[in-house]
Design brief:
GO terms for molecular function: arginine-tRNA ligase activity; ATP binding. The chain is an alpha/beta fold and 597 residues long. It has 21 helices and 14 strands. Strand 8 and strand 9 form a beta hairpin.
Length: 597
C-alpha cells in the first residue's frame, strides 16, 4: 500500500530541512485519524513535496535551493537523493526519494518514501528531536519586547509584550536563527522632569527608591504631576529639570538618574526571572541623545524629509504624513529616538529581521518609523515588523488594583495556594504551601492564558478560567508533565536506553498510542508554524492536544498492570517521548516544567 501522508506546498519550502524529519508531517486532523487507523497495515509512506518548476531565490526558498536546481527537478533525481542523504538530519527513515514530473502543471512532485518502523523509532528514540543543522544561522533576528517605562506602571500591555516577545525569540532560537533579545526601556521625555521633581518635592531617600524602585518612582511621578497641574511654576521647574537632564548640565541629577535606572533593572530582572524571560541587552531611550538625533536630523534634512515649522518644531514628511520629531523647545520626541535607535541597531547588530512586539495602539508610530527609516536606508525594507497585539481586560487583583506587575504575579501565586488548600484532602501536605511551586503554577496559569489567545484579539482575563486543572490551562500542562514524570520515575530501574523502539507493541490497543505518536510527529511542524505566523497560540494549542492524547493513553495503556514486559517497556518509551516533547514545548513558552505539584 502506498500512502501519501502529507504535502508541502511551494509556500512552505523553508520547512524542507525539517520536512526530512517525519516530525514535520503536515496533516489535517481527519487525515491523521485515518492514518492512525491504517498505519499498522502500511508498507510505505510517502511524504510528497510539490516543487514548481520556477522557484524564486528568496529567504524562504533558500534551504531548498541548496539542494536542487528547481528548474529541472526531474533531471536531477539522483542529485536530489544524494543531497537528501547528505543532510545532517536523521534520515534513516527515508528509504527513497522519487521525482514525479507533473506534465502540464509546470511542476514536479518529490516523494520521500518513509519507512514506518524507522519513522516510529525516530519519534521514540532517546535523543531529542531538535533539528541538528539549521539553514537559518545566517539570519539574525532581533526581537524587541517588554520595553516598559520608568516611572510609569508596568501595565498589562507590557506583560503581553514580555510574554509574547519571549516566545517569539525562543522559537527563532530553537529553529537555529541567530537571535538577539532587546528590552528598550522608556526613561526619557518631559515626564521625567516631573519624576525628578517628585523625588525632590517628596525628599525621597535613595534607600527608599532602592527598596521598591518601580512603585516609589511611580508615586513620585503621580505626586509631581498633580502638584504641577495646580502650580505653573512647578510645571516650569519640571521642564527645566528635564532640559538639564537632556543637556547633561547637572551632574548630580544625571548621576541620580543613572542610579534609578539600575534599581529599576534590578527589580525588573527579578520579575522577569519569575516569568522565565531574559534579555541579551537592556537599552534605554536616553541612550539616543541629542547628538545621535542631530545626526539623524542631518540625514533626514539632506534626504529632503524634514520640514522646520515657524514655531521651531521639526516635522518629518513621509508617505504624505507629517510627524513631529523635535518639539519647539528643541527637545526630542519618541519617534526621533526610535529612528536613531533603529539606525544604530542596524549598524551594530546587522540584523536581517527586526521584530517590535508592541501593542496595537502604536501602529501609527511604527508605520511612521518604518517609512522614515526605509526612506533613509532602503536596505531596511522588508526587515522591519511591528508585531501587534490587542488588549487584555480584567487582569487585576481581587481588590481591583493592578498597577504593578508584581501585584499580578503575587495574586496568581496566592490564588493558586488557596485553591490547593481548598482541594487538598489532607491539609497536612507540606508541599501545599510551597512558595516556589505555587509561584510557578500561578505564573504558568497567567502565561498560558495570555499565550493561548490570538495575538491581535482583545481578551478578557479571568482568574477562574486561567486556573482550571481540566480546562485548557497552564495548570493542565504542568499537571500532565508531573504525571509523566512520576510514571517514569516509578519505573526508573527499567533501563530505557537498552530498549529498541518497536511500535508493533503499541498498535494493539485502539489508536491511543498512535494518537500520541502522531502528536509527537507534529511538534516540529507546529513550532515552525508558530514562528511563521508569529503566533504562540499555535504551539499552546498543540500542547493541549498532546496532553489530551497523553492523558487518554495514560488511562488506557497502563504500565504497572501490564503483564507483557515488551509492551510495558514500549509504553514507557512512548510516555518518555511525550514527556520530552511536552517539556520542550513548555520551555519554548517560558514555563518551568514541574516534577511534582
Ligand atoms: N516604552 C514604550 C511604551 O511603554 C514602548 C516602546 C516600544 N518600542 C519602541 N521601540 N518604541 O509605550
Amino acid at each position: 500500500v502506498v500512502q501519501c501522508v502529507g504535502t508541502i506546498s511551494a509556500r512552505n519550502f523553508a520547512t524542507l530541512p525539517m520536512a526530512l524529519s517525519p516530525c514535520a508531517i503536515n496533516m489535517s486532523s481527519g487525515i491523521r485519524r485515518a492514518i492512525c487507523e491504517q498505519l499498522p497495515q502500511l508498507k510505505n509512506i510517502y511524504y510528497a513535496l510539490e516543487v514548481p518548476s520556477k522557484v524564486q531565490n528568496s529567504t524562504a526558498t533558500r534551504p531548498l535551493l541548496q539542494w536542487i536546481l528547481p528548474a529541472d527537478v526531474a533531471q536531477h533525481e539522483n542529485e536530489l537523493l544524494d543531497s537528501v542523504k547528505r543532510q545532517q538530519f536523521d534520515t534513516s527513515f527515508i528509504e527513497d526519494v522519487r521525482v514525479v514530473p507533473r506534465n502540464g502543471r509546470n511542476a514536479a512532485k518529490v516523494e520521500f518514501q518513509i519507512q514506518p518502523d524507522a519513522f516510529a523509532a525516530h519519534l521514540l528514540q532517546a535523543d531529542s528531536v531538535v533539528p541538528k543543522a539549521s539553514a537559518f544561522q545566517e539570519e539574525h533576528v532581533v526581537v524587541e519586547y517588554s520595553s516598559p517605562n520608568i516611572a510609569k506602571p508596568f501595565h498589562v500591555g507590557h506583560l503581553r509584550s514580555t510574554i509574547i516577545g519571549n516566545v517569539l525569540a525562543n522559537l527563532h532560537q530553537h529553529l537555529g536563527y541567530r537571535t538577539t533579545r532587546l528590552n528598550y526601556l522608556g526613561d526619557w521625555g518631559t515626564q521625567f522632569g516631573l519624576l525628578a521633581l517628585g523625588v525632590q518635592l517628596g525628599s525621597i531617600s535613595d534607600d527608599r527608591i532602592r527598596e521598591a524602585p518601580i512603585e516609589t518612582l511611580y508615586n513620585a511621578y503621580v505626586m509631581a504631576n498633580k502638584a504641577a497641574a495646580e502650580d505653573p511654576q512647578l510645571a516650569q521647574r519640571a521642564r527645566e529639570l528635564f532640559t538639564s537632564l537632556e543637556a547633561n548640565t547637572d551632574p548630580t541629577l544625571s548621576c541620580e538618574w543613572q542610579k534609578y535606572r539600575q534599581y529599576t533593572i534590578d527589580e525588573l530582572t527579578g520579575m522577569y526571572d519569575r516569568l522565565g524571560v531574559h534579555f541579551d541587552s537592556y537599552e534605554w531611550e536616553s541612550q539616543y541623545s541629542q547628538r545621535d538625533i542631530g545626526d539623524v536630523l542631518t540625514q533626514l534634512r539632506s534626504a529632503g524629509l524634514l520640514q522646520r515649522e515657524h514655531d521651531g518644531r521639526e516635522i518629518v514628511v513621509v508617505d504624505e504624513r507629517r510627524v513631529p520629531v523635535i518639539k519647539s523647545d528643541g527637545s526630542t520626541l519618541y519617534l526621533a529616538r526610535d529612528i536613531a535607535a533603529l539606525l544604530e541597531r542596524q549598524r551594530r547588530l546587522q540584523f536581517t529581521r527586526m521584530l517590535y512586539v508592541v501593542d496595537n495602539g502604536q501602529a501609527d508610530h511604527f508605520n511612521a518609523l518604518f517609512s522614515t527609516a526605509t526612506a533613509l536606508d532602503a536596505s531596511l525594507k522588508d526587515k522591519l515588523q511591528h508585531v501587534k497585539f490587542g488588549r487584555i481586560r480584567g487582569m487585576s487583583t481581587r481588590q481591583g488594583k493592578a498597577v504593578f506587575l508584581r501585584d499580578v504575579l503575587n495574586e496568581a501565586r496566592d490564588v493558586m495556594r488557596e485553591k490547593r488548600f481548598a482541594s487538598a484532602t489532607t491539609k497536612a501536605n507540606s508541599t501545599l504551601n510551597d512558595e516556589h511551586v505555587c509561584d510557578i503554577l500561578g505564573v504558568s496559569a497567567v502565561l498560558v492564558n495570555v499565550l493561548k489567545q490570538r495575538r491581535q484579539r482583545d481578551h478578557e482575563f479571568s482568574w477562574q478560567q486561567a486556573l482550571q486543572v481540566n480546562g485548557d490551562t497552564g495548570i493542565k500542562l504542568q499537571y500532565t508533565h508531573c504525571r509523566l514524570h512520576n510514571l517514569l520515575e516509578r519505573f526508573g530501574d527499567i533501563e530505557l536506553a537498552e530498549i529498541k523502539p518497536s511500535w508493533q507493541h503499541l498498535t494493539e490497543e485502539p489508536s491511543d498510542a498512535l494518537a500520541v505518536l502522531y502528536e509527537l510527529a507534529r511538534f516540529d511542524q507546529c513550532v515552525w508554524q508558530a514562528k511563521e505566523q508569529l503566533e504562540a497560540h499555535v504551539l499552546v494549542n498543540y500542547l493541549f492536544g498532546l496532553c489530551n492524547a497523553t492523558s487518554r493513553a495514560l488511562k488506557r495503556l497502563p504500565v504497572k498492570q501490564e503483564k507483557c514486559p515488551d509492551k510495558q517497556s514500549q509504553r514507557l518509551l512512548l510516555f518518555r517521548a511525550a514527556k520530552r516533547t511536552l517539556q520542550q514545548g513548555m520551555r519554548l513558552l517560558g514555563l518551568k516544567p514541574l516534577n511534582q505539584m
